[in-house]
Amino acid sequence: MSIATEPNPAETRRALIAERQQRSMAWRVIHLLGSLWLALFLLATIALACGIATFAESSFDTKIARAYIYKAPWFLVWLGVLCVNLFAVTLTRWPWQRKHLGFIITHYGIITLLVGAVIGSQFGFEGNVTLHRGAPPLDRITTSRTILQIQSPSTGATYLRKFDAEIARPSSRHLVTLAIPGSPLKLVADGHSENLVRAETIAASPSPTAGPGAAIEFSTAMMGQHIRMAFALDGGKPVEKDFFGLARISFGLSLPGHEAAAARETQMVFAKYQPVIRSEGGATGITVELSDDGETISIGAPDGTSRTMHRSEVTGQTLHVGNAAVEIGGYWPDFKLVDGHPASASSLPNNPAILVRVTAPRTPDLHAKPLLELAPGGDGLLYQISRDGAVTSSGTVKAGGSFPLGWADWQAYVTELLPHTMLETSMEPGAKGMPGASGFHAHLESPDGKTGPSQWIVAGSPATLSVGDNAVHVAYGLELRQVPFTISLKDFQVPRVEGTDTPANFISHVEFQDQSTGETKQGVAEMNHPASWPGGPVALATGLNYKFSQAEWNPSDLGQTTLQVLYDPGWLLKWSGSLAICAGIFIMFYLRPKKK
Questions:
Q1: Can you spell out the DSSP letters for 130-190?
Q2: What pTM does this model have?
Q3: Model pLDDT for residues 512-550, shown as the tens digit of each residue
Q4: Which residues, in sequence order, are CB contacts of 374 under 8 Å at separation 6+?
Q5: Domain map of the chain by residue range?
Q6: φ, ψ at 525 (rounded to 5°)
Q7: Which of 33, 192, 336, 591 would you call most buried, defined as having the most Cβ atoms within 10 angstroms of its Cβ?
Q8: 3-state helix, strand and coil shares in percent for the chain, rounded to the nearest 5
């Protein structure tokens, strides 16, 4: 006699899943796409890519990590495959049961989060806008995206192309070729730099009235830098240049004279009280003491030398103590002031006082910027180096010679001297560590293989490339994205911490205007409180909203402010997905049905 047993629901479910896999190709594909091995492979690859991106951000730049990983097509495809895997793994549980609720919500939350991140990355942007009070409204935002603007030589139309030389990194070994729209020409980039500077060189001038000139190269072995400067006189007026904030350099027809800088003091010296000292040009370091009876005077110098004399013997004389000249003036045995003038109340030494005038060479201020002065002289170049008015060295050097500057290990090399000179300017990579503009080196190439002259294309400066009779106008720099509204600055305020000049807040009062309807709206952007357009609950909830946050200010111009702009259309999906993930995890661990 056999006893009928009730079928196990779990075994029945597994049998159903196995059966549909055998008889349906679609279900076999779904189970393949939702397999654990595929999920592990995708997650491991994404984790490795994120690790490499983190290394790239710390070693190179965030822009590199975004271009090659986070915003790269292969990474977006990988995220898409991961979303398919997450969706397929939920289908493998069909028909769903109550215990699957948290699992399904968590997986769909991850999918929603990833979709929102991709939408924000591809269609959103970050940028900034600089506003001036009273200036016309702006409708363009400067984004962080670098583009190349090319004007077709055949149609005259302007084309925009995404191109970042820092990411592409063209070089003589890695040429980057860009097609010119509407033309058989090609733009070939063969170099890039992040610190382009304007370089000046001298050339012989055919004009006999042109002034002399010199080319100097400054170098330091300690810092590994070589900096070239060119000087040419026009009209005889000296030319002065700043040496990167470290020093000043002047080039003229002759070297100016420098009087020995002197410090002067007037000291009213008392026998029983502290002296009253008035200084001009700095302290001399001379100390004067008067005995209690006013008969003896002692003078000390900073170098340790001193002299003690009878006061009556030196009154009215000038003494030399160390490198200072000390003049002994009037004497009052019982000093008092009468109508603001020194006088003596009696002939008794009740309050002896003596007037002393001191003149001494002034010690140069070591914090003052040094000055290098140059002038043509004979068949060479005259130079003198001074600091705070005191000449520290001078001499003559011929073309090809050098002299030390006394600024660490800096040396100056005279590379060229010309009697009649004109200046020529060009852009070239600056010294390592020196600030400059970004750009790339490029030329045009025609279909027959001919190439035009190469030049540096500097960010923010239009340029023209040519080959044969063809010319192409190009511009390189950050993208200006047009927005459907205008923004203008009405007022900018910088409240201060009470009793100090320290800013307590930055408040920008702005006005938005819809370009289609003409509707205006007032906004206030301050620290931790952005202004927004169009604002309102719907725009804030969906992320279809432009947020303007306080970013920079100009202490010398309180009518100017810079706002950071953020537009993220994937905001709602990212937050919805995050909340779904939290809810799903909570259901899986805290609300799952108990086993019977």
A1: EEETTSPPEEEEEEEEEEEEEE-TTT--EEEEE--HHHH---SSS-EEEE-TTSS-EEEEE
A2: 0.62
A3: 999 888 899 999 998 888 999 988 888 888 888 899 999
A4: 214, 216, 231, 249, 250, 251, 252, 381, 382, 383
A5: 9-123+575-590, 126-168+437-567, 211-259+367-419, 262-361
A6: -110, 120
A7: 192
A8: 25, 45, 35
